[in-house]
Amino acid sequence: MRLNQKKAIVTGGACGIGRAIAQRFSEEGAEVCVLDINDEAASQVVEEIEQKGGQAHAIHCDVGDAEQVTLAFNRALEVMGSLNILVNNTGIIRQSSVLQTTEEDWDLIIRTNLKSVFLCTQRALKEMVSAEQGGRIIGISSIHSVLSEPNCCHYTASKGGMESFLRTVATEMAPHKITANFIRPGATYTDLTIPMYTDSVKQSLYKRVPLGEIAEARWIAHAAVFLASDESRYMTGQDMTVDGGFVMDGSLPDAKYWEE
């Protein structure tokens, strides 16, 4: 029960990594507000949590819209009474080369993946600073904030921007004992990524990832629990890379480095 009595908001909590985080937070004792535009899926997550004895609330919110963010956070504070943890998880992806990327798609990705982090974090910080109880801001980034991802220039830009923003938040909020950290998941099965994992892609990943697996969303959620808990109190402005060793490994798949 590492999050006992804590109050958390998880954006994009209706599916994928966000859903797993909401569930894990509840298992650790937190009361959770699930913010999402998919009301039906968000309600399902809440129902699953409640069936296991947890407390959760589904709140409709387009996190790229300032007015909706204000209303959603007001509602969350109304039902929970306070706020200790914010997880900026909402994210979408589009695939197109740099030459073919439209301004419309660029604006959509930046609005959803990056502007939303600013809007939600700013609103959460106002509450946390006022309460004088510290707090935790967590961003779900990607290994592709530091690695190129062909055909996803807007996605990689949004994740790099998130990390830069949260580092500045970490510095400014340190006097208030509010930490800001981010997780860089590697290949992970979610509603967003499953369509991208063709047989060819999966076979390549099995060779390229040292641990030889594609992650389940729950594995990423374990890292979020740590960052949300008091165990991470002396960590801020940092990344947690949860990728099966993908980024650190410089070896060549199937290469033999010595003669047998």
What does this structure look like?
With 260 residues, the chain is of the alpha/beta class. 43% of the residues lie in helices and 16% in strands. It has helices spanning 16-27, 39-51, 66-80, 103-131, 153-173, 199-208, 217-228; strands at residues 7-11, 31-36, 56-60, 85-88, 135-140, 178-185, 188-189, 215-216, 239-242. Strands 3-2-1-4-5-6-9 form a seven-stranded parallel sheet, sandwiched between helices. A two-stranded parallel ribbon has the order 7-8. α6 (199-208) links the parallel β7 (188-189) and β8. The radius of gyration is 18 Å and the shape is globular.
Placed side by side, the strands forming the largest sheet appear as 3-2-1-4-5-6-9
Domain tally: 1
Any guess at the CATH architecture? 3-Layer(aba) Sandwich
Low-confidence stretches: none
Distance N to C terminus: 51 Å
**Would you count the extended β strands for me?**
9
Assign the CATH superfamily: NAD(P)-binding Rossmann-like Domain
Shape: globular
